[in-house]
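for the recovery benchmark. C-alpha coordinates below, seq after
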Protein backbone atom coordinates (compact mmCIF):
# COMPACT_ATOMS: atom_id res chain seq x y z
CA UNK A 1 0.00 0.00 0.00
CA UNK A 2 1.41 3.35 -0.95
CA UNK A 3 1.55 6.35 1.37
CA UNK A 4 -0.88 8.20 -0.88
CA UNK A 5 -3.47 5.43 -0.71
CA UNK A 6 -5.27 5.33 2.67
CA UNK A 7 -5.88 2.02 4.40
CA UNK A 8 -9.34 0.57 4.11
CA UNK A 9 -11.32 0.33 7.33
CA UNK A 10 -13.45 -2.79 7.51
CA UNK A 11 -16.42 -3.59 9.75
CA UNK A 12 -15.87 -6.59 12.01
CA UNK A 13 -18.74 -8.18 13.97
CA UNK A 14 -18.34 -7.86 17.75
CA UNK A 15 -18.09 -11.61 18.38
CA UNK A 16 -15.31 -11.85 15.77
CA UNK A 17 -13.51 -8.90 17.39
CA UNK A 18 -13.55 -10.77 20.70
CA UNK A 19 -12.11 -13.90 19.03
CA UNK A 20 -9.41 -11.84 17.29
CA UNK A 21 -8.48 -10.11 20.56
CA UNK A 22 -8.18 -13.51 22.23
CA UNK A 23 -6.05 -14.89 19.40
CA UNK A 24 -3.70 -11.89 19.03
CA UNK A 25 -2.17 -10.56 22.26
CA UNK A 26 -0.88 -7.49 20.41
CA UNK A 27 -4.30 -6.43 19.07
CA UNK A 28 -5.78 -3.34 20.73
CA UNK A 29 -9.39 -2.37 21.44
CA UNK A 30 -9.87 1.40 21.39
CA UNK A 31 -13.06 2.79 22.91
CA UNK A 32 -13.77 6.23 21.44
CA UNK A 33 -16.99 7.00 23.33
CA UNK A 34 -17.29 9.83 25.83
CA UNK A 35 -16.24 9.79 29.48
CA UNK A 36 -19.93 9.87 30.38
CA UNK A 37 -20.58 6.73 28.35
CA UNK A 38 -17.62 4.95 29.92
CA UNK A 39 -18.84 5.87 33.40
CA UNK A 40 -22.58 5.35 33.04
CA UNK A 41 -23.01 2.78 30.25
CA UNK A 42 -19.99 0.57 30.93
CA UNK A 43 -16.74 -0.58 29.38
CA UNK A 44 -15.61 -3.73 27.60
CA UNK A 45 -13.88 -5.91 30.18
CA UNK A 46 -10.68 -7.37 28.74
CA UNK A 47 -9.29 -8.50 32.11
CA UNK A 48 -9.54 -12.18 31.12
CA UNK A 49 -7.11 -11.28 28.28
CA UNK A 50 -4.83 -9.40 30.72
CA UNK A 51 -5.59 -6.15 28.89
CA UNK A 52 -7.71 -3.05 29.10
CA UNK A 53 -9.28 -1.05 26.31
CA UNK A 54 -7.52 2.17 25.34
CA UNK A 55 -9.83 5.12 26.05
CA UNK A 56 -9.74 8.28 23.91
CA UNK A 57 -12.82 10.39 23.17
CA UNK A 58 -13.56 11.02 19.49
CA UNK A 59 -16.27 13.58 20.28
CA UNK A 60 -16.51 15.73 23.36
CA UNK A 61 -19.62 15.85 25.53
CA UNK A 62 -21.83 17.86 25.67
CA UNK A 63 -20.58 19.91 22.70
CA UNK A 64 -20.22 16.95 20.27
CA UNK A 65 -17.13 18.48 18.68
CA UNK A 66 -14.45 16.24 17.26
CA UNK A 67 -11.51 16.00 19.62
CA UNK A 68 -8.85 17.93 17.66
CA UNK A 69 -6.15 16.09 19.63
CA UNK A 70 -7.57 12.61 19.03
CA UNK A 71 -4.79 11.30 16.77
CA UNK A 72 -2.02 12.79 18.93
CA UNK A 73 -3.55 11.45 22.17
CA UNK A 74 -4.08 7.99 20.74
CA UNK A 75 -0.63 7.80 19.12
CA UNK A 76 0.92 8.74 22.48
CA UNK A 77 -1.04 6.03 24.29
CA UNK A 78 -0.21 3.44 21.64
CA UNK A 79 3.49 4.33 21.76
CA UNK A 80 3.37 3.90 25.52
CA UNK A 81 2.00 0.39 24.98
CA UNK A 82 4.66 -0.45 22.39
CA UNK A 83 2.10 -0.65 19.56
CA UNK A 84 3.45 -0.27 16.03
CA UNK A 85 1.57 0.89 12.89
CA UNK A 86 1.06 -2.71 11.70
CA UNK A 87 -0.84 -3.80 14.83
CA UNK A 88 -4.54 -4.61 14.50
CA UNK A 89 -6.56 -1.79 16.06
CA UNK A 90 -10.29 -2.27 16.76
CA UNK A 91 -12.32 0.92 17.24
CA UNK A 92 -15.50 0.83 19.32
CA UNK A 93 -18.23 3.40 19.99
CA UNK A 94 -21.92 3.13 20.86
CA UNK A 95 -23.17 1.82 17.52
CA UNK A 96 -20.35 2.02 14.97
CA UNK A 97 -20.43 5.55 13.51
CA UNK A 98 -17.91 7.48 15.57
CA UNK A 99 -15.59 4.49 15.69
CA UNK A 100 -15.51 4.31 11.88
CA UNK A 101 -14.49 7.98 11.71
CA UNK A 102 -11.81 7.44 14.37
CA UNK A 103 -10.48 4.36 12.57
CA UNK A 104 -10.30 6.32 9.31
CA UNK A 105 -8.39 9.12 11.06
CA UNK A 106 -5.83 6.64 12.39
CA UNK A 107 -5.55 4.90 9.02
CA UNK A 108 -4.82 8.33 7.58
CA UNK A 109 -2.11 8.74 10.23
CA UNK A 110 -0.31 5.64 8.95
CA UNK A 111 -1.81 2.80 10.99
CA UNK A 112 -2.34 -0.01 8.51
CA UNK A 113 -4.82 -2.33 10.25
CA UNK A 114 -7.71 -0.24 11.54
CA UNK A 115 -11.03 -2.02 12.02
CA UNK A 116 -14.46 -0.72 13.00
CA UNK A 117 -16.37 -2.77 15.58
CA UNK A 118 -19.68 -3.28 13.80
CA UNK A 119 -22.71 -2.33 15.91
CA UNK A 120 -20.46 -1.03 18.69
CA UNK A 121 -20.97 -1.42 22.41
CA UNK A 122 -24.77 -1.03 22.45
CA UNK A 123 -25.92 -1.42 18.85
CA UNK A 124 -28.79 0.44 17.21
CA UNK A 125 -32.11 1.26 18.79
CA UNK A 126 -34.60 -1.61 19.07
CA UNK A 127 -38.34 -1.13 18.37
CA UNK A 128 -38.81 0.15 21.97
CA UNK A 129 -36.03 2.70 21.36
CA UNK A 130 -33.58 0.94 23.71
CA UNK A 131 -29.98 0.02 22.95
CA UNK A 132 -27.99 -3.03 23.97
CA UNK A 133 -30.83 -5.49 23.52
CA UNK A 134 -30.33 -7.16 20.15
CA UNK A 135 -26.86 -6.34 18.82
CA UNK A 136 -23.53 -4.92 19.89
CA UNK A 137 -20.97 -5.91 22.53
CA UNK A 138 -23.43 -6.02 25.44
CA UNK A 139 -26.19 -7.88 23.58
CA UNK A 140 -23.68 -10.49 22.40
CA UNK A 141 -22.93 -11.23 26.05
CA UNK A 142 -19.28 -10.25 25.77
CA UNK A 143 -17.53 -9.26 29.02
CA UNK A 144 -18.17 -5.74 30.21
CA UNK A 145 -18.23 -3.85 33.49
CA UNK A 146 -19.91 -0.75 34.79
CA UNK A 147 -17.45 2.17 34.75
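predicted aa per position
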Amino acid sequence: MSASQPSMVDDVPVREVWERLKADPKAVLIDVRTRSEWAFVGLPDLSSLNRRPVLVEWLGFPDNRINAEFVTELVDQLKGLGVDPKTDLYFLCRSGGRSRQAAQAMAGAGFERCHNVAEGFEGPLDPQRHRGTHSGWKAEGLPWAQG
